[in-house]
Amino acid sequence: DVKVTQSSRYLVKRTGEKVFLECVQDMDHENMFWYRQDPGLGLRLIYFSYDVKMKEKGDIPEGYSVSREKKERFSLILESASTNQTSMYLCASSSRLGTEAFFGQGTRLTVV
Amino acid sequence: AQSVTQPDIHITVSEGASLELRCNYSYGATPYLFWYVQSPGQGLQLLLKYFSGDTLVQGIKGFEAEFKRSQSSFNLRKPSVHWSDAAEYFCAVEGRSNDYKLSFGAGTTVTVRA
After folding, report:
1. Do residue B104 and residue A42 have CB atoms under 8 angstroms apart?
2. I need a labelling partner for A38 at 20 to 30 A (CA). Which of A98, A106, B40, B107 fits?
3. How far apart are CA A30 and CA A33, in angstroms?
4. What is chain A's pLDDT, residue by residue, as a tens digit (112 residues)?
5. B92 contacts in chain A (CB < 8 Å)
6. CATH number of the domain that residue A8 is part of
7. Architecture of B3-113 per CATH?
């Protein structure tokens, strides 16, 4: 069974903290994505990666960075967490263009 | 830049009635097109996708979608909804060549009344 695993379901962090969200897929997929999901705004793409060590900005990259040192792992980093980054974060992976993206269960991050 | 518009934020439909969810996209060429569903408390699941060829695409759970190039639309339909279809539905687009960006619309929430 295909699997995308996000390290935490719920996370509470303080303003100014550096936050790491981890995502691991076991399907040998090339493409990986990070989204945030907010009510009324749908899924907004933060960053994506189509290969190891490759990364591309999505629609809302400000305040975030990513790391992909291994094919199976894609990390999202909030350099200095702010309250407006309180959201549900979803990781996804896909094997190639035009194929199904598989999603993790999400991490609900609250920044206080 | 590619974008996806789902004009309807919320739709309420009676059980057994038909359902149509609208999706319009903006892209230089015909992208790959997808519909995903997110049931309450669940992850996103692919309903169907348009790759090429036949413009009417069949998916899981009795859903279908029609691609209309002239209208840049990819509307989702179901002839008879079930209470279990209550969920949030997302349209998505992905570029075809060297463009790995997978973009989603804002979603349409479907409520099914008995």
Report:
1. yes
2. A98
3. 10
4. 669 999 999 999 999 999 999 999 999 999 999 999 999 899 999 999 999 999 999 999 999 999 999 999 999 999 999 999 999 999 999 987 778 999 999 999 999 9
5. 101
6. 2.60.40.10
7. Sandwich (2.60)
